[in-house]
Amino acid sequence: MAKTNTTTISIGIQGDGFAGGTAGTYSNAQSNGGGLPPTSVTTSNGFTAVTVPATALGFTIVPPPGSAVTKILKGVTGDTGVALAPNLPTSVPLTAGLIASFGLTCNGIETVTVFWQ
Fold first, then answer.
1. Which residues contact residue 113 at a Cβ distance below 8 angstroms, ignoring those fewer than 6 apart?
2. Whole-angstrom distance, CA of residue 14 vs CA of residue 70
3. Among 9, 23, 48, 90, which residue's beta carbon has the most beta carbons within 10 A?
4. What distance in Å separates the CA atoms of residue 24 and residue 14, rounded to the nearest whole number?
5. pTM of this prediction?
């Protein structure tokens, strides 16, 4: 049976200053017919490299519930990187085949799940 990965991100804003319609609303869905399985990645206290499958169109990093381990998303070891929320998922779209790997620099050891799109 064929497998498909679909990731959907929706953002809705309501309240004072948003008078209905589509103001403050965004929705995007991305599907990959390659059906890539999720990967468990155990971080180190430092830099952990993650290999990106050649057909991946993006990824979502999902930390364990209640995580307090800091995470910095990097292209390579010496990169300044981007600090991620320690306990929330992070999604990054990619162009398939252009990124071979990325890194997570953490201040502790834990297992995160990487869902490939």
1. 38, 39, 40, 41, 61, 62
2. 31
3. 48
4. 7
5. 0.82
- The pLDDT mean for the chain works out to 86
pLDDT in tens, 63-112: 999 999 999 999 988 889 999 999 999 999 998 889 999 999 999 999 99
Q: What single-letter DSSP state applies at residue 18?
A: B
- Is the distance from CB of 81 to CB of 70 less than 8 angstroms? no
Q: Is 62 helix (H, G, I), strand (E, B) or coil?
A: strand
Domains, in order of start, for the chain: 34-116 (2.60.120)
Distance CA 117, CA 56 (A): 6
Average pLDDT over residues 11-35: 66
Is residue 43 a contact partner of residue 103, using CB atoms and an 8 Å limit? no
Pairing of strands 82-84, 90-93: unpaired
Q: Which residues contact 17 (CB under 8 A, 6 or more apart)?
A: none
Residue 15 DSSP symbol? B
**Distance, first Cα to last Cα, the chain:** 18
Which residue has 């990325």 as its token pair? Answer: 102
